[in-house]
Amino acid sequence: QVQLLESGGxxxxxxxxxxxxxxxxxxxxxxxxxxxxxxxxGNQRELVARIISGGNTNYADSVKGRFxxxxxxxxxxxxxxxxxxxxEDTAVYYCNASVRPVGRVYHRDYWGxxxxxxxxx
Length: 121
Description:
By secondary structure, the chain is an all-beta fold. It has strands at about 1-5, 10, 20-25, 30-40, 45-50, 55-60, 65-70, 75-80, 90-100, 110, 115-120.
């Protein structure tokens, strides 16, 4: 049993910053990739940023240079530092992690419940 819990969303003015965090808990053997996705009303869910256990990252073009993803493997936590926020960043942000649970031989995707980020003046 694995759960992901996000925090850090909220309302911010354009140009402002937020930091999202997501912690995986439960009977976890290992985690390879962790990342953030977002979905605005009427839009498809899209990858925002992803980080693997070795530290390699990738970002959506729309956030490159503004957002930074990092992780703490001891805490099983992934962070998304969001700077220079724009109104078009408004969305529900979902944490994702590829987790190998205790007792399983393969990794599977888990999702958090989402946290709302609203960028508005």
